[in-house]
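Supplementary Methods. Inverse-folding protocol.

Structures were first reduced to a discrete structure-token string of length 334. This string, shown here, constituted the complete conditioning input.
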């Protein structure tokens, strides 16, 4: 078992700085999610850790060992990609055993490891099937199994769920998390989906334009975002931003507020504010109401199914403890 450490790691592709001065420590057994928008450098960071991309500057450690110059197959990692090409002509058992056989692992050891992976991933009844006879979720579990039988020091996963439909994605999310907790192997997981990040990560590293914006637990990122980028990226529906001047309140700097802290008007809130309804998202148990106030758009949260119409006026207020303040120029949390 081993942790992972990025120390001032950079990657250039010509004039593009894909990753800038990345310093990040991932503890032994930790599930770390790298999340960020497209092009933020997540995959490049993962590929450098895997040894698939040369490092332009800095060092990467797996355990105590600097791996900058170590070949991918010597790094003792296993990767799961979005395109998990299984060998179509082989059974599930042979797909799982393939990498071990190539590494000349003894037969009895292969039997044991495949049986263990099949048990953990609930593949025991499928071992004699071929990939063409599996559902998408089952095939994805076989792909995970191939990584698992390697018994590596570190799992690397790059958007492994993005080819699954929404329901299966939610289910497989839980399975990967349970699996990782059972084997307790350090995992680095890349996704652009903040919900996936929030539900899976022990900690989350948020990347933007090659830079690490913040690293913390899901709760820390949600409650105490380091800057406006993280505040806007984490949480759904997103945090709204406005200035006091825009909404006619005496509030300093840029204010950020999440929907749960914007409520229909009652005493005790900051306000009242008046705005025009721009959209209504009734989800059954809750309703999100988008409201235009001058130049700003805020999202009001209402319990249950609120009867609201686009174009109507609404009176609402802000929960003071839910307000976050950001520097207007730098975007840093104040
Ligand atoms: P996505 O979620 O879209 O995969 P990402 O956050 O994983 O995005 P990267 O794939 O790491 O981002 O890309 C980071 C930046 O590096 C992008 O600007 C990308 O265009 C650039 N880049 C990545 N690989 C190469 C390459 N082989 N050659 C040139 N530029 C590259």
């Amino acid at each position: 078992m081993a942790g992972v450490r990025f120390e001032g790691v950079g990657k250039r592709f010509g004039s593009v700085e894909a990753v800038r001065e990345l310093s990040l420590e991932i503890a032994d057994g930790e599930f770390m999610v790298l999340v960020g928008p497209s092009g933020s450098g997540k995959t490049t960071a993962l590929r450098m850790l895997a040894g698939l991309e040369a490092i332009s500057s800095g060092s990467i450690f797996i355990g105590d060992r600097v791996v900058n110059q170590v070949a991918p197959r010597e790094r003792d990692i296993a990767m799961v990609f979005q395109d998990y090409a299984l060998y179509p002509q082989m059974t599930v058992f042979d797909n799982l055993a393939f990498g071990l056989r190539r590494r000349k692992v003894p037969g009895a050891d292969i039997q044991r490891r495949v049986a263990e992976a099949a048990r953990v991933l609930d593949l025991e009844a499928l071992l004699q099937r071929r990939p063409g006879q599996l559902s998408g979720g089952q095939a994805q579990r076989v792909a995970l199994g191939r990584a698992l039988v390697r018994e590596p020091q570190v799992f690397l996963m790059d958007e492994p769920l993005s080819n699954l439909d929404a329901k299966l994605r939610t289910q497989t999310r839980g399975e990967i998390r349970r699996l990782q907790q059972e084997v307790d192997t350090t995992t680095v997981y890349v996704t652009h989906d903040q919900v996936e990040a929030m539900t899976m990560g022990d900690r989350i590293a948020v990347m933007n334009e090659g830079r690490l914006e913040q690293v913390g637990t899901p709760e820390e990122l949600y409650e105490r975002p380091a800057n406006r980028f993280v505040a806007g990226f984490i949480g759904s529906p997103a945090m709204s931003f406005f200035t006091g001047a825009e909404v006619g309140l005496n509030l300093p700097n840029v204010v950020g507020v999440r929907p749960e802290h914007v409520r229909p008007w009652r005493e005790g809130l900051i306000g009242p504010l008046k705005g025009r309804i721009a959209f209504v998202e009734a989800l059954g148990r809750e309703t999100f109401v988008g409201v235009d106030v001058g130049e700003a758009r805020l999202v009001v949260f209402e319990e249950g199914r609120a009867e609201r119409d686009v174009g109507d006026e609404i009176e609402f207020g802000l929960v003071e403890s839910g307000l976050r303040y950001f520097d207007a120029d730098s975007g840093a949390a104040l």
